[in-house]
Putative outer membrane starch-binding protein (Marinoscillum furvescens DSM 4134), 507 residues
Amino acid sequence: MDHKILVLLVMGMFMTFSCDNEFLTEGNPTAASVENSFNTEVEALQGLYAAYSGFQSNDFWAREFWWLPDMLSDETKTAGANLEAHRAALLNYNIDATNPLFSAVFKGVYRVIHRANLVINTLPGRANPELSQESIDLIVAEAKFLRAYCYFELVTYFGNVPFSTEPVTNTEGVPLAESVEDIYNLIVADLTEAEANLPLASAYRGTSNLGRATKGSAQGLLGRVELFRGNYTAARDVLQRLIDSGEYALADNYEVNHREENENNVESIWEIQFMLLRDGGDWQGWIGNGDGFKLQAMRGQEYSPFDWHNTLPSETLKAAFESGDPRYKLCFIEYGDTYGGPGVDSVFTAEKVAQGNSEENTHWRKYGNAYKQLTESLWSGINHRVIRYADVLLMMAEIENELNGPSATAINYVNMVRDRVDMPPLPTAEYPTSTKEELFAAIVHERQVELCSEQCRARDVKRWYREGKITTKPHENYESKHEFMPIPIDEIDNNPALSADDQKPGY
């Protein structure tokens, strides 16, 4: 992807801005700094792309982040002792503030927030003929989208968190927000501005900008935010604007949404961009924080049965699929299935499982490279689809059902998703739709199977349980304190603005 190359060329050029290092200023006054940068469109884009590159870091979407929603959902179970203890602890809801996964996620997410804040706070004050107001508005809006996304992930999983809308320039620390509502107010304001100033997806397709956030990205995320908060009318309004734009449609084939060759397609609303740069190489040469050549993802290596094989699909998830649903075979691989792709097809057997519990028949295929090769080989260039059109349609189905009951409109949204995979339309004997409650159950099912392993389930179950729409707890070990995860203990230790009193109740 051309946009990935652009990010690769500029990432890391603005990584030293977070400290007020007087000795650096005195020793090298021409070194990159806030004061002598962001003066041209090229420099402004470099600052923006530095924020994008943070998503590709090891402690964000390249590896650590998706473990959080995955382990807290009912989609996944351990494949054996090879699953690292701190990940297995989340899977069992054995949760405390010392878990290193929380620390990694905080580092990764706040890195992007800091870089976005640099752009947002610096760029509007620049006056240069090489930097038009139109460019400033676009780049700032894009940075606000990235910041809003990061704060939404934090506030939904951690509740009230350290909150700043400015780049950190000293060691005094960042306090918690005054309230969770303050965080949401910023998220909504950022996304509203992003929607107003970002271009339609069609403006970027076929160009070197493909992969950057668009108006639809802001609309899709804002709809997700408002739905999570229970603001159904607001969620419907913004998602309706996305649908009415005509920019998106379901891809012809469900499986292409998890393959490298079909990235940023007509169904894609926002993706985290990855790129296969090397096949093999040393581990330490790959790990990074998004300020070097770290564009590869780890998901296939972690989940695939051909390499580390750390997780398996849960019995709950497997049982959710209706008989004959082709998505089952597109998400999972079982003994006797072929894999590897044209010219290299092989039959999957228990002997080919790299490690872990090979007695299990069903293993993860989704987001893996088994469709084209016989091993994951550590590296993957498959983009993570964060928001896609099928998700929007199912959100709209839930919203319409909530506001208007089991209307033909609500049912049609679900059936659009089912029709793509040749599943019989609702109502069915298994999923009737005569009442609001029946259609809700059908929508819950459809989201579970359509979006499995796409980091949606944990947040869905949390909001449904919180609103009393489902009675089954998110996990058998779930307690009220698990509504939010603890602030990492090292964050409290290292942030002078925090104290033990700021920790979440129960931790």
